[in-house]
Structures are given as structure tokens and as C-alpha cells.
């Protein structure tokens, strides 16, 4: 089964997102848990959630991949920015439990000159303060392009964070195709090799979700500018190999390409047409 969707606006609630996903041909989606710039989250309407859960069940949705606001920097140098991040993270995880068993993805932070090692300690330390054994949500670290002082510029940095988190079964990784390409992992000519490296460094069982984006920039550019599927430097053939790769089956695939609704519907239909998994992988 191919679970594919895109980022949807959360402003009208969960049921509206479910219906919008169906309209676009999707069976999963991503949404910002609050304004991407941060700030207060919308109150959760339990009736709305109940309707969404019924719809998601009826249409066999895959796991959702919620996204934390970009302003949430778990390893900021300033104490007040870190405590704001901790507040958002704590509140988001509480609210994620209304839709149990889904994914919450975040950028592992920018160390802003403190160095990666200090950043890794801070981000892992915050996760240790916030994660609970009771939560059903899996928190995902996103692979990053390595622009500025971003943590997660390579698989080793993500592994170092995961190693320091106590509740390891609450953690996973979200692989962003544009970001790892920009980070220097050549999925263009060696997707198998990149996945072998991921498996050796982190473990493929920790790979829970995929952000599928083409890139405006060449391999190793550390830029992070997303392009439409097939219109960038990575190319459609690579995306086709990603969705059909036997080691990547079953993960929700989220498009974060520069598109309007019509463009997303087209990309979803295109990728569905290229998917051979139902026959080839026996699912
Ligand atoms: Fe992201
Ligand atoms: Fe992403
Ligand atoms: Zn990006």
C-alpha cells in the first residue's frame, strides 16, 4: 500500500484535513501543530477528532506526520528560546494523543555556534524531559540539509541524539529526500548505498516516514530549497525508485513541494501511477 499525501492547513480542524486529503487522492497528510512560526495552538475539538478518526479508518489512512513549528529550537543558545521550545513540544505531544499512534516530526535544532556536540546534548536532554512512557506518539527527527548550524546534517548526528534518549521506542527518523541530497547523500546514482549507510548508522527500522521533495540545488549544496517532483536536480526516476524500494515500503510519504492543491493532486496521481508495490511487493 502506498501512503502518500501533502502538508494541509490545520485551520479548519482534523475532519476538514481528512476530507481535503481524500479530495487530493491522498491517504495520509502532514500538518503544522500550530502556526509554523510558533505561537498558540488551536483548541482541540473532540467531536471533530472523533469524526476524523472514523473517516481515517473508513479510508484506511496511513499514519499522519505532524510537523512542529520551525521556530521550535530545542538547542538554542538562549534559555528563554529553549524553554519556549520545551513548552511547545510538551503541549504538542499532549495534543497528539487525541489522534493516538501517529508521528510528530521536528527539526532537531540549530546549535547557533555552540557546536554540534552541545546541540546534540541539549536536544536529547529536552527529549528526556518531555517524552513519557505512556505516549503513543512516535517523535521523529528530520534529516536536515545542513544549512547554517542545523543539527541532523548527517546520519551520525541523528544517531548521536537517538543514543542519548532514554525512551528509544518513542523515537524515529523522517527522511527528507531534498535534505539528504543537499546534505551530500547521492540518492541519484546510489540509493541502495545511501540506504545501506542509513541502516548501518541509524538502522532502517527507525526510519518511519519520508518527506518527498525534489531539490533546486546540486548534491551537497546544503541549501534546502524544495522543487516540484521531477522538476529539480534529483529527478523523477529517483522518486520512482524511492516509492518502489523494497526497504521503504509502508512508510507515509509526504510531499512538501511548492504547489497549490491542483499541483499536489497531480503529483500524488503521478506517483501512484509509478507505484508497482501492490503487485511487486505483494502488498
Ligand atoms: Fe521539515
Ligand atoms: Fe521536510
Ligand atoms: Zn526543507
Would you mind describing this structure in some detail?
By secondary structure, the chain is of the alpha/beta class. 40% of the residues lie in helices and 14% in strands. It contains ten helices and ten strands. It has helices at 14-23, 46-58, 79-96, 116-130, 155-164, 177-182, 187-201, 236-244, 261-274, 277-280; strands at residues 4-8, 30-32, 65-67, 103-106, 138-142, 171-176, 207-212, 214-215, 226-227, 253-255. Strands 1-2-3-4-5-6-7-10 form an eight-stranded parallel beta barrel. It has a two-stranded antiparallel ribbon with strand order 8-9. Strand 1 (4-8), helix 1 and strand 2 (30-32) form a beta-alpha-beta unit. The protein is globular. The termini are close together. The mean pLDDT is 96. Bound molecules: fe (iii) ion (2 copies) and zinc ion. Residues 176, 178-179, 224, 226 line the site of zinc ion (ZN).
Keywords:
40% helix; 283 residues; globular; eight-stranded parallel barrel; alpha/beta
Spatial ordering of strands, largest sheet: 1-2-3-4-5-6-7-10
Gyration radius from CA atoms, angstroms: 18 Å
Oligomer: single chain
Shape: globular
Ions, cofactors and other ligands present here are: fe (iii) ion, zinc ion
Helix content: 40-55%
> How would a crystallographer describe the biggest sheet?
8 strands, parallel, barrel
Mean pLDDT: 96
Q: N- to C-terminal separation?
A: 6 Å
Q: Could you state the order of secondary-structure elements as H and E?
A: EHEHEHEHEHEHHEEEHEHH
Tell me the number of helical segments per DSSP (H or I, 4 or more residues long): 10
Uncertain residue segments = none
Number of beta-strand segments = 10
Bin the strand percentage: 5-15%
